Amino acid sequence: MTLPKPAAATAPTSSPGPGRRSFLRGAAAVGTAAPLSSFLSPGTASAAGRPTESAGPSDVALRWLEDRPAELAGASWGTPWPMGAVPGDQSFALTAADGAAVPVQSWPLAYWPDGSLKWSGHAISGAGAAADGYTLTAGEPAAPRSAVTVRERRGHVDVDTGVITVRMPTGGTDLVARVKRGDRVIAEKGRLVNLKQDGIPDDGLGTVRREELLSAVEEVTVEQSGPVRAVVKISGKHKRRGRSWLPFTVRLYFHAGAESFRMVHSFVFDSDGQRDFIAGLGVRFTVPLDDELHDRHVRLVGEGHGALAEAVRPITGLRRDPGEAVRQAQVAGRRTPDLSTWDTRVSGRIDLIPAFGDYKLSQLSSEGFTVTKRTKPGQGWVQADEGHRAAGVGYLGGPGGGFAFGLKDFWQLHPTQLDIRAAHTRAAEVTVWLWSPDAPAMDTRFYHDGLGQDTYEEQLEGLEITYEDYEPEFGTPYGVARTSELTFWALDGTPDAERLGAIADAVRAAPQLVNPTEHLIATGAFGGLFSPVDRSTPARSRIEDNLDFLFDYYVTAREQRHWYGFWNYGDVMHSQDGDRKVWRYDIGGYAWDNSELSPDLWLWYAFVRSGRADIFRFAEAMTRHTGEVDVYHAGDWAGLGTRHGVQHWADSAKQQRISTATYRRFYHYLTTDERTGDLMRELARSEETFLVLDPIRKIREEPYEPDPRALSIGFGTDWSGLAAAWLTEWERRGPRWEECRDKLLGTMETIAAQPNGFFQSPGLYDMETGRYAVQEEPRISVSHLSAVFGLVEVNAELIQQIDMPEFEAAWLQYCRLYNGTDAEAEEELGGTLPANRNLRQAHTRLAAYAAARLDDDTQAERAWTGFFHPSTDWEYGRDTELGTERVESTLNPTDWCDNASTNNTAQYGLAAIQNLALIGDRMPD
Hints:
Blueprint: E1 60-64, E2 74-80, E3 92-96, E4 101-102, E5 105-111, E6 117-125, E7 133-138, E8 149-153, E9 156-160, E10 164-169, E11 176-181, E12 184-197, E13 210-225, E14 229-240, E15 243-255, E16 260-269, E17 277-288, E18 297-301, E19 307-311, H1 324-332, H2 344-347, E20 358-365, E21 368-374, E22 382-387, E23 393-398, E24 401-407, E25 416-421, E26 427-435, H3 456-466, E27 480-491, H4 497-508, E28 513-514, H5 517-522, H6 538-561, E29 576-577, E30 582-583, H7 599-610, H8 613-628, E31 641-642, E32 654-655, H9 656-659, H10 665-671, H11 674-681, H12 689-692, E33 711-713, H13 717-732, H14 737-752, E34 763-766, E35 771-772, H15 791-801, H16 805-818, H17 822-829, H18 844-854, H19 857-867, E36 885-887, E37 894-896, H20 902-919
Antiparallel strand pairs: 1-7, 1-28, 2-6, 3-4, 3-7, 5-6, 8-9, 9-10, 10-11, 11-12, 12-13, 12-17, 13-14, 14-15, 15-16, 16-27, 17-26, 18-19, 18-23, 20-21, 20-25, 21-22, 23-24, 24-27, 25-26, 29-30, 31-32, 33-34, 34-35, 36-37
Helix pairs in contact: 6-20, 7-8, 7-20, 13-14, 13-15, 14-16, 16-18, 18-19, 18-20, 19-20
């Protein structure tokens, strides 16, 4: 398809002063992969830092993140482009590894300020076998053999993939009215179901009341309509008898030639967690069945490719043998021979063989699942089997067709469940439970009673002992969210073991195409702050070994400490307890990390430089978690995130530094995920939250009332979050992109105009003008946290594409002086910086950035000297030995690294990665 051309966007420009280097904006003139150093040499860009002419898009060789998938309905990915190299309306073609043209659908994800394409989104269908790899290039795309089509009618939307047709009503209870394959209805009445419970009896006694609420569709929007990929967005709430709650957003994805469709399900928890409790949350379909009971098949996949494979009415293992051909057909899932050919001792008594209409696979913890079945309601359940970690995949149907269903991260997001009910009737029900009704009701109540901390003084005392920033009524889950991913198949028959295994693999890890690291670097993606993994010298190898060790340690800790569960999966813990040899899961602000000091960024930069699938999947889970659970999406604090704590919503510090779009950009641009795009768009006006909540209300020394014309907003953790949201909305050309552009440029100009630039923080922000008031008197304010929540990364992207010398000078001043001498600070700022500046190793990447921008060997030496500092007080200093010991005394045997912490890990990782990219060629022996 042809991409729409955006309106031109401009930013202030002026010629760089003497000695200024072009840095990453020079990447716009490069069309092929090149080392980062090629972007740091003078003269590669025009005076304004932009290319003088378009080089055009280069070919990009794409590969699968994991092995070539055996089951592929479709896949989507994003590809970056250098500034000025690709027109905003460029069309793209795709070829397979064997040279065959592959149908591809393309659309813009982001634009550079000059209107050229920054990121393009692409999708392929799974019609036919997946290729080993693909090449993306400029050109006209091949047309699919059978395009996916969307027809919007009065009262419903129909999507036809060429294999299945799906009807979605624009109102009512059902999200999906029916799924047809040919003339056969495979499934119908697809709706959301919620069991609401009115209380939790803490002693296990007493009675509780449950009621069932169903989805009520309020809006249906067609976001893409083919020819390769179609996307339909459905929103609404769960309702019953005038009661409504749990707003939901569901996207359904369809691909040309596919017999399946994908669902991305998100809901917002709009309860304070004290009265209403979720006792079940699921997606339910009715499955019509017309085969004989002995030809109706159930499949439930366990760990690996093994599955419970049975018929509703089993005819194997009987006292009498119906015949080998009959038994083999049932076991294989084929239609059995006509009943008249059976041994009459079986056919004459077939009604006396019990038919099992109900099955359930319950995964109530990460460590085990159970499978039970019964003949019908009112009869006892029979235990079928147990296992460790189920795939979350099932099937119900017969030789003529059936319905397969799967939930991604099934055991990781426990308690989950797969239900099949009434399979002995002509209308069975299949429910994929995101929260199992067999588990205790979801308990989101705050974990302590406040401990008498009623005043700010008492709360600050509590902070001193447990590191928890408590405040009454602030530990609420109201407004947090969760996203789940499901896939459904309308099959033409019962899948054999091989096909069922391929389906399970596709559910566990959706097939993902990725760009080569060299292309990401050549385009300056994500600020260009990374370079390929390189072990060419002993010093480089030592750093790479440390990076590998730290990532592996968190993978191991997640497994051994069981960092799983519906609300927890994707996060990691903040700090360890060396006495108990456990992570401090129960100690105030030391428990769940909630993005503290940017582990999200560490993981994503680790992926883009290595291309490792295990890092991608870890980062993917973290992005899904931190963007949903750790951030408020409704209520007064919508747009703010919660600081680290025992519960993800427990701490009273609600801040921009957690909700920042910086942590979401990677996943959105690499995968085109629309839900992540929604989360970033929510933040376009998140400065309004400063009217509701003052982030430093407990420690202000002077009276302060939020004023929309003079909001106190810091230049570090606060502004970096706002700037990331504004930049993202601008480059995506969202509904408020011009407003966001102006606020971004206005704040950049007025930060640069402060007497001491970034050291002047905070400033008074005017919501009407989108600018800071420029202070008259210079002052010095420094926090070790200012630059470690995405400020480094967003400024790299801003300087990369916006030519504003004054802003760059202000940022480079901060980069130079944070690690500088008192004399340097005195000369430029009129005073010295505090001596106890923490995270010195983390901040070496500021000196590295200054060294690269200014071609300053002194800054490079300062960066590496600080990074390799021998002190063990500096994150992971030169003398820090990273290794593990086996601990048998904990609840489960664990591997323990005594000096690990997430703050240090994330910041060491970012400093190592960025220093290597920026000044790796100046590393001392």
